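Appendix B. Chain record.
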Amino acid sequence: MRISCFIEGALRADLVKLVAAETGTLIDKCRPSRTERRLRPERRYPWAGLVFATLIALVPKPLNAISLSHADVLRIAKKIWQNECNGTISGLTSWNAGEDFASLGIGHFIWYPKDRRGPFEESFPKLVSFISKRGAKLPNVLLGTGEKPCPWNSRTEFLQAQHSTQMNQLRKFLADTIDLQAEFLLARLEGALPKMLAEAAPGNRTNVQEQFERLTKTSQGCYALIDYVNFKGEGVLHTERYRGQGWGLLQVLEAMHGTSDTTAVDEFSRSAKTVLTRRVQNSPAERHESRWLSGWIRRVNSYNGG
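Structure tokens predicted for this chain:
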């Protein structure tokens, strides 16, 4: 995975145009025409070079590729399956108490009923599209044009349908596509960094990318990244905030400042615990989120073997 050289080049080109517009110089032109040279008095802006250099420094460097074997991706996916539903087939179709959506697949991807939306990003329709494009046969409950809403309107309806034909077909589909769900989890991570850099303050972008890269250098670090971004999101949605503070991957990386690759996972785990504890402290009292915190802490402890 790389930040596109095209994107970086476009950003640099925009910076060139910006400086040119501010200074009146012809930075993006090899040399002025003779007419322009005669009519326009020469003006010098000694600070223009400094402005340009500063702006260029804010453009993050290209990201090195994440190197994971297919076996590593499957191993990480099975850990996430264990985290979400104890590695069980029955856990592939869940609707947790206190939530307004179904949680499906090894990553407990969110699926909202019709005309229902919450603050959390819906990911199950994206998974279905990803799997469908790879040629897998969809069960009847997922067939049709466009994104299909969850056919069960409440947790009660969902639980009553646990042994229905629709639910059994859906569960079999999810059990048969574990490898494709694993690929989807990796693809989500690959798309996360550009989103986070766009959301981060300009002065934080280099650190966010450096911390991300520290973690991608080991399979355990990749597991931490893949699991957390699936677990709590990228941290870029403003709907996923309590008292203006998020709890996603971006917020965890922003709180890290180490440089050693060997301590990256330990630092990530500590930062994640701090961010999740802050989320619970900031959460509305009626959600009773403290009931989930101990499980969340156990989960992030698994990143460093704790």
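Further analysis of this model is presented in Appendix C.
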